[in-house]
């Protein structure tokens, strides 16, 4: 599954970068995220409870940042296990471009799924992933704006 896009965020790049690296901001913006903990400057653990179509699923896994070029870009890689729900792993290249007082966040992501999650079908999983991404970017834009207002 592939996802690619851009989001315009009405906050300066440095603030957007700080928010993208703040576990509390991310926990509040990632749909279904119940915990996200920083283990090191580049390693995190996360727990999610999401609904894929009609089926509620729980996942816990690790996230690693690489190719970090603050405050411009990084590569995010993650792998999670969802018990009987299956597994998911993915990678996203994230780039921030300053545009005046705003920031353009560009992403290019890919994911692989297995187990019961894969049995749901790529259309259903893809549709759910797109809805979750839209919710994340909406909430993240609001969180970055709130951080900029402080």
UniProtKB/TrEMBL annotation:
Q: Which Gene3D superfamilies match?
A: 3.30.530.20
Question: Sorted alphabetically, which Pfam families does this protein's record hold?
Answer: COXG
Q: Which domain of life is it from?
A: Bacteria
Q: What is this protein called?
A: Carbon monoxide dehydrogenase
Q: Which organism is it from?
A: Pararhizobium polonicum
């Amino acid at each position: 599954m592939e996802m690619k896009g851009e989001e315009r965020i009405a906050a300066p790049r440095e603030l957007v970068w700080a928010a993208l690296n703040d576990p509390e901001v991310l926990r509040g913006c990632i749909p279904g995220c119940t915990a996200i903990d920083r283990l090191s400057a580049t390693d995190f653990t996360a727990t999610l409870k999401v609904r894929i179509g009609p089926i509620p699923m729980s996942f816990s896994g690790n996230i690693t940042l690489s190719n970090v070029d603050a405050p411009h870009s990084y590569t995010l890689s993650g792998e999670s296990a969802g018990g009987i729900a299956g597994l998911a792993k993915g990678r996203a290249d994230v780039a921030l471009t300053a545009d005046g007082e705003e920031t353009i966040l560009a992403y290019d992501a890919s994911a692989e799924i297995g187990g019961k999650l894969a049995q749901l079908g790529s259309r259903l999983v893809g549709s759910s992933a797109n809805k979750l991404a839209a919710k994340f970017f909406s909430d993240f834009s609001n969180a970055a704006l709130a951080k900029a207002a402080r």
